[in-house]
Amino acid sequence: MKKIINAPAAFVDEMLEGVLAAHPDMLRAVSPDKRALVRTDAPVAGHVGIVTGGGSGHLPVFLGYVGLGLCSGVAIGNVFSSPSADQILDATRSVVGGAGVLYLYGNYGGDVMNFDLAAEMAEAEGIRTATVLVADDVASAPPERAESRRGVAGMVFAFKCAGAAAEAGEDLEAVAEAARHALANTRSMGVGLSPTILPAAGKPTFELAEGEMEVGIGIHGEPGKRRAPLEPADAIADDLLDAIDGDLGLASGDRVAVMVNGLGATPLEELYVLYRRIYARLATKGLTVHRPYIGEYATSLEMAGASLTIMRLDDRLTALLDAPARSPFFRQ
Predict the structure, then answer these.
(1) Which residues are catalytic?
(2) CA-to-CA separations, 85 to 74, 96, 151, 171, 291, in angstroms, rounded
């Protein structure tokens, strides 16, 4: 294992020390262990707070989307591990502006259990909460079980749209509905070319033979839909787009936002090669790309590979997507 770390057990805390030292104007810690962070102006009086959270190892997800027009706070777990209910509650208490708090996070068992427990604790303190789960990964379950799908890079679009609604002063139900509406129109799928290595374990989370790829891989290395010989970029782009299109039902005349996301060890040049094909395919189908996002938005440590996320837009989602946003890791 080759990683730029000190003691593996200190990895997450030292990463957070670095983030807080680099961005004191935008983020502050609100728990003794510094695992709960909020935007520096939180709470914003009269506004809905948005709290997300999950395991480390996915930067910019989750803490990278705490800021203006995005999330208000985050609870941070160990690598690929859920934050505790107490950490979530610390973040919740610190973003209460009097209009309630939305919990917006990925559909993973440990996260669901601890966020639900935090919601009960918050309600006992008189803090009103609502929950929206991100479940955008089409490879993880068929349409008839869509509610059980994993949450992957599509959560970035949910953060953006819900955050814009909260920034505009909309109430808790409207902010939650903005997230639900974004996610109802968002689908993702990824392909993995190499595994990730957990600092504490020091060994790959899965194995791929030389020249193989995992189509439909999860962001923790969960198995995809199939393992196959590595294909050219255009064929990979077609695989991802066809799966998303078949599930989302894109039609001529639709406007979309497109995210080509690197999983941690993929050169930006390769992401643009993928986008070139995706853009051409969408244009042929009569779709308009309103906004492209190409880069690292939801990673898996040093995993090589990429994911594609598409959000179909209407006037409401377009306005929310276009609204200003700023965090240490995201600016629009």
Answers:
(1) 58, 220
(2) 12, 17, 19, 25, 36
